[in-house]
Amino acid sequence: MNIVKYPEKGLEWMSLMQRPFSDDEDIYRIVNDILYDVSSNGDEALKAYALKFDKVELDDFLVTKEEIETAITLVDDELKQAIQQAKSNIEKYHQAQVKIEDKITTMQGVECWRKSLPIERVGLYIPGGTAPLFSTVLMLAIPANIAQCKSIILCSPPNQQGKIHPAILYTAQLCGVHQIYKVGGAQAIAAMAFGTETIPNVYKIFGPGNAFVTKAKELISTHGIAIDMPAGPSEVLVIGDKNANANFIAADLLSQAEHGIDSQVIFLTDDEEKLFAVEQAVNQQLQQLPRKEIATQALENSQLILLHSLDEAMQFSNAYAPEHLILQTENATELAEKVSNAGSVFIGAYTPESAGDYASGTNHTLPTHGYALSYSGVSVDSFMKKISFQHISEIGLQNIGNTIEIMAANEQLQAHKNAVSIRLKSIYEKN
User: Fold this and answer.
1) Taking a C-beta distance cutoff of 8 angstroms, is the pair 354, 264 a contact?
2) Which helix (H) or strand (E) holds 125?
3) Poorest-confidence range of 17-21, 351-355, 359-363, 410-414?
4) How far is Cα 125 from Cα 157, in angstroms, rounded to an integer?
5) Which residues pair with 4 in a beta bridge?
6) Count of CB atoms within 10 A of residue 181's CB?
7) What is the mean pLDDT of the chain?
8) What backbone phi and psi angles, to 5 degrees, belong to 365?
9) CA distances (Å), 279 to each of 35, 258, 310, 349, in order?
């Protein structure tokens, strides 16, 4: 990791906040071709991509009831219990997000309100590959079900035997996913966006993925298909003081670094001894990781930064807007009140980021790449749409009508004014 001492605010801070960047011109071209191919050729295109990318020949993409039943037997009881406990916590946290809004009388006879309704058809993308993210099934399917979406489909890449990881299938059926399809990559995003002979199109797509999946989501959003949020590689920023546990901090940094070679981790402190203690702990723990090579490359994008104070560290963090922010300081609770930009915040020495990834209850689908400046993580609201309603009585129109007429006339929109004037005339004539 790069060590930087007392960087100056301004250009030097901005330089340290730069995320890993790769030229994605080739990715754009490849993904754009895949989207066009799937939208034009449907299942035939998906079969060709399964053979090309997943090295498997598929006749059908839908996971059968028998396959799910078999998968359930392949997941050991200890993991099942862990998934069930996580499910319970995540349900409790997300169920509390369901609110019924009051009707508001803005003036006599004028009543307005808003109603939350589920997005009827949603698609969940769950990566397979080197780390099958069954935890993401929990994070997406649970709020989708709480929102009462009518159709919840899931796509995940198959292995060379044409199977999806058993833990993904177990979790999906546990959380009420309606259909599961053996399709991965950008082609899965295309299938859910445009629909094929087998896979229905959806109105909003959720879930993480590699650069090709991310680009596909970005491109289909220009076709009127909603996505959960823009995405980039995973990241964490940790703020620690002189009393922080260096081993804890190193473990948190490495837990994000092992996600992928383009992940980024940052440690901020006002104590120089702690800076070097964390560096040493990172190097020691790194040697024991099965994903050492991936984490090592991620650490090349990462920083250990010495600042003048914890307040300055919080200023840096709010400007960086990390996906995950961990506060391991004596005044962590007080410091947390100063957070203005972050995807999810972890307070205190015994609150690892892993807790939010799996089982504490909060959602781990979070804005990355600085999008926490303006985006929130996934919640029940992500699976809902808000529709406004209003009802105006005769008295209400008499009370508000003149205001509308004056405003419409001054915008030179005569038909808008007439829509009120004709009604008012009818009321006056009747009375």
Assistant:
1) no
2) strand 121-125
3) 17-21
4) 9
5) 305
6) 24
7) 96
8) -85, 100
9) 44, 16, 19, 18
Helix axes 77-95, 166-174, angle to 10 degrees: 40
CB half-sphere exposure, 340, CA atoms < 13 A? 10
How many residues comprise the chain? 431
Question: Cα 156 to chain center, whole Å?
Answer: 17
3-class state of residue 117 by DSSP: strand
* Pick from 302, 338, 290: nearest CA to 318: 338
Name the one residue in this structure whose structure tokens are 């099958």: 132
What is the C-alpha to C-alpha distance for residues 170 and 124, in angstroms, rounded to an integer?
Answer: 15
Active site positions, annotated: 323-324
Inter-axis angle of helices 166-174 and 134-146, to 10 degrees?
10
- Of the chain, the percentage scoring pLDDT greater than 70 comes to 99
Q: What six digits make up the tokens of 301?
A: 């994008």
CA angle, 136 as apex, 131 and 142 as ends, to 5°? 160
* 330's tokens: 């004596």
Closest CA to 31 of 218, 231, 160, 194: 218
pLDDT given for residue 246 in this prediction: 98
DSSP per-residue letters across 381-392: GGGEEEEEEEEE
What is the per-residue pLDDT for 367?
Answer: 96
Residue type, 186: A
Mean pLDDT on 360-373: 96
Contact criterion met (CB below 8 Å) for 208 and 55? no
Question: Residue type for 163, please?
Answer: K
Please tell me the distance from the alpha carbon of residue 358 to that of residue 376, in angstroms, as a whole number.
18
Residue 181 scores a pLDDT above 80: yes
Beta strands in 207-318 (DSSP E): 226-227, 235-240, 264-269, 303-306
Paired tokens of 202: 């959806």
Type of residue at 77? D
Distance CA(190)–CA(210), nearest Å, equals: 15
CB 106 within 8 A of CB 95: no
Residues 286-342 pLDDT 10s: 999 999 999 999 999 899 999 999 999 999 999 999 999 999 999 999 999 999 999
In whole angstroms, give the CA distance from residue 251 to residue 351: 12
**Cβ(366)–Cβ(377) under 8 Å?**
yes
What are the pLDDT digits (tens) for 104-129?
Answer: 999 999 999 999 999 999 999 999 86
Tell the burial category of 73 from Cβ atoms under 10 Å away from its Cβ (0-12, 13-18, 19+).
Answer: exposed
Predicted local confidence at residue 431, as pLDDT:
80
Q: Which residues contact 369 (CB under 8 A, 6 or more apart)?
A: 19, 230, 231, 232, 233, 235
3-state DSSP percent of the chain in helix, strand and coil, to 5: 50, 15, 35
